[in-house]
């Protein structure tokens, strides 16, 4: 579900655009990669749009500083937009944002895979120690080694845990 932009914000942005027309012209054209990321990113968190937008805005700052120091006029804004080197900063920064976004998922996946493998080895070595201490009676329950049962806890009385509830076998009362 999309959130609607309140009308008062549209009015404020419209008035600021008229007052700061040269700045808005430079910003809108320089921030096109962010608008593209907003259109592409359909996730609720909008990590792609936020990452690219932040770096893209940082890349726009040199052009805006030049615009403000040389006088905020349409002539200066058009000369800034005509300078290819000033285009390099916002578009290069947004490219770095894309690289960060695209490289984060594989890096984190390999990190979590390595962490899980290390934890599994620790658990297996601890299990071997427990079998050595308690004997082969503990080794009879090989639930962790059988496919389909990994990760499902076993109840203390031999029953199964189903949907968080223990379905216990009939226990004879002494």
Keywords:
disordered C terminus, 68% helix, elongated, 2 strands, mainly alpha, 174 residues, two-stranded antiparallel ribbon
Task: Please give a structural write-up.
- This protein is 68% helix and 3% strand.
- It has 174 residues and is mostly helical.
- The chain has a domain at 7-110.
- A two-stranded antiparallel sheet has the order 1-2.
- Strand 1 and strand 2 form a beta hairpin.
- Helix 1 packs across helix 2 (21-30).
- The longest helix is centred in the middle third of the chain and has 51 residues, at 84-134.
- The chain is elongated and about 85 Å long.
- The relative contact order is 0.07.
Task: Write the SSE topology.
Layout: H1 7-19, H2 21-30, H3 32-40, H4 47-69, H5 74-82, H6 84-134, H7 136-139, E1 160-162, E2 165-167
Short description:
The chain has 174 residues and is mostly helical. The chain has helices at residues 7-19, 21-30, 32-40, 47-69, 74-82, 84-134, 136-139; strands at residues 160-162, 165-167. It starts with 6 loop residues before the first helix and ends in a 7-residue tail after the last strand.
Q: How large a portion of the residues is in β-strands, by DSSP E?
A: under 5%
Listing every helix as H and every strand as E from the N terminus to the C terminus, the arrangement reads: HHHHHHHEE
Instruction: Give the C-alpha Rg.
Output: 30 Å
The coarse silhouette is elongated
Low-confidence sequence ranges: 155-174
Mean pLDDT: 82
Distance between the termini: 60 Å
**Helix content class:** 55-70%
What class, by secondary structure content?
mainly alpha
For the sheet with most strands, the description reads:
2 strands, antiparallel
Q: Number of DSSP strands?
A: 2
- Tally the helices: 7
